[in-house]
Design a protein that fits this description.
By secondary structure, this protein is α/β, with parallel strands linked by helices. It is 34% helix and 24% strand. The C terminus is likely disordered.
């Protein structure tokens, strides 16, 4: 099978955890062990979030004079290299001799995407509201609630096209374990002189769904810190959704800053090319691939196969 696995930012750095190199190494090692059984049996492509990391780079960047600061597209590229290195290191230790590559990945977005006028993507650490408002006033940030805390938010335009997709396809076809489109990729816009960077951070689940569709993956796994998608989240009647047809999953019913983008990405992928998406715990990655854990999102029952259309989710790569 061809599997695209998207590691959530909290899989790499737990919520509220200090953003130290050692903490990131330890968390990436846990992620690598969770991915190992899949890497041993399937063609694996790994993508990842970068919200905490790109926010940290932006804070470090802010120590320079205003005319010396780097734009977000360059910081996105830095975070791709940093996290890709850690993933390669830990996966390489578990898979000696396996060929791997981390690819800086440019993703085209529309210059006139409405997201540039309405920042929604959380990056960096969480703050108490008073501290967040002070920083927003000093640095010109836009801030928004993130659970009980507050974070900086930046534009998150819709990914349209992966410029390096043919290279990724060739590497996967050659048996290389690829880490790519990290942090949603590097946002670029087209112009008269070619491509230029955009001041944004693309949502990694949207980029992951585009990556999985472009590669015609059999499965798209979104690995995070919750066990499943819940109907009625936050209410006494909350229940885990274990299996659902894409058409029955409405992203508008879920928080835009957390589960909403994952649900939208799962639906978009499952409806596109016959594969299935899954959302759940990082530790359950292998069971999710077998359809035994998380929330499994499919295109819907196939009349030609009867009601048991979801059986045998790991049958093999589609031609």
């Amino acid at each position: 099978m061809r599997v695209v696995a998207a590691l959530g930012g909290n899989a790499l750095l737990r919520r509220g955890q200090p953003m130290t190199a050692e903490n990131q190494r330890e968390n990436v090692a846990v992620a690598a062990r969770a991915l190992l059984p899949i890497a041993l049996e399937h063609d694996l492509v790994v993508t990842h979030g970068n919200g905490p990391q790109v926010g940290l780079l932006a804070l470090q960047n802010a120590a320079y004079r205003p005319e010396e600061t780097y734009p977000l597209d360059i910081l996105d590229a830095e975070s791709e290299g940093m996290i890709g290195y850690l993933l390669e290191q830990e996966l390489g230790n578990l898979l000696p001799g396996r060929r791997m590559a981390t690819l800086l990945t440019r993703i085209e977005v529309a210059r006139d995407d409405p997201a540039f006028m309405h920042p929604t993507k959380p990056i960096g650490p969480v703050y108490d509201r008073t501290e967040a408002e002070r920083l927003a006033s000093e640095r010109g940030w836009t801030i928004a609630p993130d659970g009980p805390k507050w974070r900086r938010v930046v534009p998150s335009p819709e990914p349209r096209r992966i410029l390096e997709i043919s290279v990724i396809e060739q590497l996967v076809a050659d048996g290389v374990l690829v880490v790519c489109a990290g942090g949603g990729g590097i946002p670029v816009v087209s112009g008269h002189g070619g491509y230029g960077g955009a001041e944004a951070v693309i949502d990694k689940d949207s980029a992951g769904a585009l990556l999985a569709r472009s590669l015609r993956a059999d499965a798209f796994l979104m690995l995070t810190d919750v066990d499943a998608v819940y109907a009625g989240w936050g209410t006494p009647s909350a229940r885990a959704i274990r299996r659902i047809a894409a058409q029955d999953l409405d992203p508008r019913q879920y928080a835009s800053g957390s589960m909403g983008p994952k649900v939208a990405a799962a639906r978009r992928f499952a409806e596109s090319d016959g594969g299935f998406a899954a959302i759940g715990y990082l530790a359950d990655a292998q069971r999710m691939l077998a359809g035994e854990a998380g929330t499994i999102v499919t295109a819907g029952p196939d009349p030609a196969r009867g009601e048991d259309a979801d059986a045998g989710l790991v049958a093999g790569r589609r031609s």
